[in-house]
């Protein structure tokens, strides 16, 4: 996604793809992830509304500092980051859209409604031959308990059933640790050469970060947001869709955390104005070919773009970045009214992706 990237040789190169040529991209980390930090070491976001307030404040302040890039905004998140997108989108729409002009939402392999998001994981693992039928049946029983606690509004117990009763149970059966069942073909791994590059003294100096530690995962925040997986951003996403904001929802075929079947179950469970279209012939698959290779399949209804990336893991961009960003570019270009770019900017850089 970044305009620049590093290779194993440590050399920085331009990441020249359709998306970086078309949009300005702003990345926002969780608290204490990357080089982000707070003056108060005890400070941490504690609920969805607070999370949305923080992100909204960051966006509005960014546009005050850089007014030349203020234009149509697309917000997006992958995996657990996706559940932060509906609260932010809802807040933007309830506030002043002249400050942040929300034009679309992008969710990749993302949590929307935990109850349906994991509803097919047992069957998925069984069909791949990774667990026995009895384990898949036990997973179904756990899902019933998860359903009951979710309906009762007990988010902590709901998340417990997901982590201990489903994820951990499957992991010990298939030989992975933590959440690594996410990719049947290859386990998720961080790009060590990028971490090596960012820690170089000359790079730290240019980033003006001093001796701040570079953090990939901050334990307390991970635990807190793990609990919040049991809460529901579903209603907020429905609000966004019913305000006619377009949604691109993409998914990796080999995702074992949020299986594609579960993701589709969540999609059909959303209450929005285009729901009936999902059950018509209009919502049929078309092939997506990129550079002579089959990338996946797309279905469209009203403002919804649903994409399945074949032979891709939980984080699609790790496997097929160029093809995925081409899809994002097409989505943005087709869902934003075309106009002249502001002075000083090329016309192909007329949008922002947050």
UniProtKB/TrEMBL annotation:
It comes from the Eukaryota. One of its GO terms (molecular function) is serine-type carboxypeptidase activity. Keywords: Carboxypeptidase, Glycoprotein, Hydrolase, Protease, Signal. Pfam families: Peptidase_S10. Gene3D superfamilies: alpha/beta hydrolase. One of its GO terms (biological process) is proteolysis. Belongs to the peptidase S10 family. This is Probable serine carboxypeptidase CPVL isoform X2. It comes from Diaphorina citri.
